[in-house]
């Protein structure tokens, strides 16, 4: 018999003390890491806010770009971003959900499925500029769609497809198999089971994934430069075959000018972009709650 | 070899007739060449220790095993003179005519009404849906408890009510046969008793095959009992005979509680 390691008489063994110390250090480290993120975000927001809030008014939202900072506005870029986002959602959502349904509910569990699955996971990690090159070669040149909103939206759709597919698959997989059994047991066909039971239950998760992916798309610049978004546009897009610019590109364009007034309106444009993002996330939460409450 | 006692079908055709049914999960054989005649409008209980293949056999009767990846069924199951496993038989149609109630209540996350309406709707029901919902809930002895809150979520019901809802949901598609896989095993004794009373009522109109690991329950509610052991049918016959005077040593050991 050796001496007791764990005694409750107050004097902790050195091993025990070390364990508790480690635990505390770890907790502090984790807390610091979390704070780091919050503080960095707060500093960034405050900085942008101080720079840009003064410039943010109706005139800024309703004016086109200009050579003079005080007359310039984000109208073209904001509308361009909204057009691109809307069209990207319209294209990417049905394709992704369809792919997810196929992979989860229809595809056999064989090597082809696994290969597709592996490829989707890999595609999610490809740098966005590569999608831009693809968009340029495929949509702008080969399909002759030119430097249009449609080319941009198609390119961004491909970029976010893997994200939405994987999120949708996750959501579909989370639907309990007992629900599928119940529906099949009542004489439902596979399509009826999927469309009337599985999809409605998976929809909140699918929508969340879609909005997250769109949030990524709204901040993308590089692939859109590749497919020909332009930095200076003085008209509002009126259709999918129009030229366009988007907020991140407009911001980049202004920031890279030497005059400090342009830096201020760039900050204001960043605030507009953030507002757009927050609106999208709020919409996602609303949609999700509506779906969850439906009986 | 299995001992099968006389099964009295009252001169009617049997509701179901399994011939040399085997089920494999991959290489593993879970059900071994079982022959079983299910008489119409009777309650047949499948009993046996856990893992002996009761659920697997039950799921053959409405082709639910088709949905299990890697499951393979051999043999024949005859239903009105047609082998359910024939190539030209549509499993969707089979499941409509042979309904199933599962071990754990599994209502849809929808209203009580929509739980009932789903089956008729997917089967193209065109008549009076409200009437059908009411009739099915009454058959399942649930109408009095829920008639004033049909639009509430089914999840707001108690476990026993949920299971009766699942039974009502199955009845709403008007099956001829109802398969039940330990329908009361997740319920308290009172709820269990209500389900048993319900089964007693239902057998006037339906043929019922019920899996149970509860021997008292089998003895109380069934007309015939099949005892399965390690994938094989050991003995099948009238319930009183099987429980009081079984022919097989293993049956006697099981029903007297010496193993299982
Ligand atoms: N989906 C499945 N895949 C592989 N093996 C299974 C599956 N379902 C059941 N089994 C096996 O088949 C045997 C019979 O299972 P089951 O029919 O569920 O038994 P019981 O209902 O009598 O408890 C068990 O050994 C079980 O492990
Ligand atoms: Mg079972």
Structure commentary:
In chain A, α1 (14-52) packs across α11 (260-293) and α10 packs antiparallel against α11 (260-293). Chain A folds into two domains: 2-55; 59-294, MetI-like (MetI-like fold, Orthogonal Bundle). Chain A has 295 residues and is mainly α. Chain A is built from eleven helices and no strands. Chain A has helices at residues 14-52, 58-62, 75-106, 111-123, 128-142, 149-173, 177-185, 190-218, 222-226, 247-255, 260-293. The longest helix of chain B is centred in the C-terminal third of the chain and has 14 residues, at 189-202. Chain B is globular. In chain B, a hairpin with a 2-residue loop joins β5 (71-79) and β6. Chain B has 260 residues and is α/β, with parallel strands linked by helices. The two termini of chain B are 20 Å apart. In chain B, 33% of the residues lie in helices and 25% in strands.
What is the compact description of this entry?
The complex is a heterodimer of chains A (295) and B (260). Chain A has 295 residues and is an all-alpha fold.
Return the string of H and E elements of chain A: HHHHHHHHHHH
Stretches of chain A where pLDDT is under 50 for at least 5 consecutive residues are none
| Helix-strand makeup class of chain A | mainly alpha
The end-to-end distance of chain B, rounded to whole angstroms, is 20 Å
Helix and strand arrangement:
The complex is a heterodimer of chains A (295) and B (260).
Chain A: H1 14-52, H2 58-62, H3 75-106, H4 111-123, H5 128-142, H6 149-173, H7 177-185, H8 190-218, H9 222-226, H10 247-255, H11 260-293
Helix pairs in contact in A: 1-11, 3-6, 3-8, 3-10, 5-6, 6-8, 7-8, 8-11, 10-11
Chain B: E1 3-4, E2 16-25, E3 28-38, E4 43-47, H1 54-60, E5 71-79, E6 82-83, H2 91-97, E7 98-101, H3 112-122, H4 129-139, H5 143-146, H6 159-171, E8 177-181, H7 189-202, E9 207-211, H8 215-221, E10 224-229, E11 232-238, H9 239-244, H10 249-255
The structure holds adenosine-5'-diphosphate and magnesium ion.
Residues 54-55, 181 of chain B line the site of magnesium ion.
């Amino acid at each position: 018999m050796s001496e007791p390691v764990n005694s409750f008489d107050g004097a902790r063994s050195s091993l025990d003390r070390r364990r508790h110390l480690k635990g505390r250090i770890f907790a502090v480290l984790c807390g610091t890491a979390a704070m780091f993120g919050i503080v960095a975000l707060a500093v960034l927001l405050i900085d942008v806010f101080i720079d840009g809030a003064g410039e943010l008014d109706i005139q800024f939202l309703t004016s086109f770009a200009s050579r003079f900072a005080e007359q310039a506005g984000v109208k073209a870029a904001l509308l361009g971003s909204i057009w691109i986002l809307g069209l990207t959602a319209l294209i990417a959502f049905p394709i992704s959900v369809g792919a997810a349904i196929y992979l989860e509910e229809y595809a056999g569990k064989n090597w082809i499925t696994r290969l597709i699955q592996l490829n989707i996971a890999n595609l999610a990690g490809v740098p966005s500029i590569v999608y831009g090159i693809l968009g340029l070669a495929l949509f702008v040149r080969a399909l002759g769609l030119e430097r249009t909103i449609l080319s941009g939206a198609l390119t961004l759709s491909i970029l976010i497809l893997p994200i939405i597919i994987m999120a949708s698959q996750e959501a579909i997989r989370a639907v309990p198999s007992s629900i599928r059994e119940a529906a099949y047991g009542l004489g439902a066909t596979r399509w009826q089971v999927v469309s009337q039971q599985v999809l409605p239950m998976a929809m909140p998760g699918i929508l969340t994934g879609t909005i997250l992916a769109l949030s990524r798309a709204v901040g993308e610049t590089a692939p859109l430069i590749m497919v020909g978004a332009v930095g200076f546009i003085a008209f509002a897009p009126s259709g999918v075959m129009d030229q366009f610019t988007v907020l991140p590109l407009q911001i980049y364009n202004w920031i890279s000018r030497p005059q400090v007034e342009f830096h201020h309106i760039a900050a204001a444009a960043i605030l507009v972009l953030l507002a757009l993002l927050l609106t999208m996330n709020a919409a996602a939460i609303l949609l999700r709650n509506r779906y969850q409450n439906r009986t | 070899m299995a001992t099968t006692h006389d099964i009295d079908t009252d001169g009617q055709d049997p509701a179901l007739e399994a011939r040399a049914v085997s089920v494999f999960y991959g290489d593993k054989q879970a059900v071994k060449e079982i022959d079983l005649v299910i008489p119409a409008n009777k309650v047949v209980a499948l009993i046996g220790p856990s893992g002996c293949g009761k659920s697997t056999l039950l799921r053959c009767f409405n082709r639910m095993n088709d949905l299990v990846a890697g499951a393979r069924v051999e043999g024949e199951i005859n239903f009105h003179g047609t082998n359910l496993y024939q190539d030209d038989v549509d499993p969707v149609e089979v499941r409509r005519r042979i309904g199933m109630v599962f071990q754990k209540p599994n209502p849809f996350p929808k209203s009580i009404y929509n739980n009932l309406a789903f089956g008729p709707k997917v089967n193209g029901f065109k008549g009076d849906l409200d009437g059908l919902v009411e009739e099915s809930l009454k058959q399942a002895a649930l109408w009095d408890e829920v008639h004033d809150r049909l639009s509430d979520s089914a999840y707001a019901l108690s476990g026993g009510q949920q299971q009766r809802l699942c039974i009502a949901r199955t009845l709403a598609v008007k099956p001829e046969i109802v398969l039940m896989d330990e329908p009361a095993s997740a319920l308290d004794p009172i709820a269990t008793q209500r389900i048993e009373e319900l089964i007693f009522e239902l057998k006037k109109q339906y043929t019922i095959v019920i899996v149970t690991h509860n021997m008292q329950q089998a003895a109380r509610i069934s007309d015939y009992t099949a005892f399965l052991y390690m994938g094989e049918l050991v003995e099948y016959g009238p319930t009183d005979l099987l429980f009081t005077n079984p022919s097989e040593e293993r049956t006697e050991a099981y029903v007297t509680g010496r193993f299982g």
